[in-house]
# Entry
Amino acid sequence: MPKAKGKSRRHKYSYNLNRKRLYRSARRRAAPRIACSHIRHAWDPNKSVAQNLAEMGLAEDPNKAVPIPKKLLGTEVETDGQQPGKKIVRKPYVVNEMELEASLPEKKSNTLSRDLIDYVRYMIQNHGENYKEMARDEKNYYQDTPKQIKRKINVYKNFYPEEYKNFIASLKPEKMEVQ
# Structure
């Protein structure tokens, strides 16, 4: 297969091209990537990052926003409550929406896999509380020890307490019929 043309020859450097200007204009046009939707909607692309954050009441530099008190020979230096050049917050709704979102309770998103749930239910259904018997079961593909199986069952109990109670309650009538 022949080589692609132009790959083997030496590339010429263009001395007439102003790379600084190209880089600067591309950087100016690119808007910062903002993860928070509240900030993204209030962002003004014509203003600098510092101006945008100051309008929203957010700090550009956390070290300047909450200064660390300097200690001189074991005594603290006291400063006035006023800060020089304090900015006016024009978009306070951004901070309010972010505080409201942060105060919402975190929803529980952790779940167990369907395979693990089926495995635990099978073991409980066939062996009850006998973990040694569960370890010898042919469905124990990963060769879990009795303690590992017990741990998996406890995890299932903690994740789905209501479902576990209903499952155990449904097993009791079956055992009474067999006896």
Summary: The chain is about 50% helix and 0% strand. The radius of gyration is 33 Å. Residues 161-178 form the longest helix (18 residues).
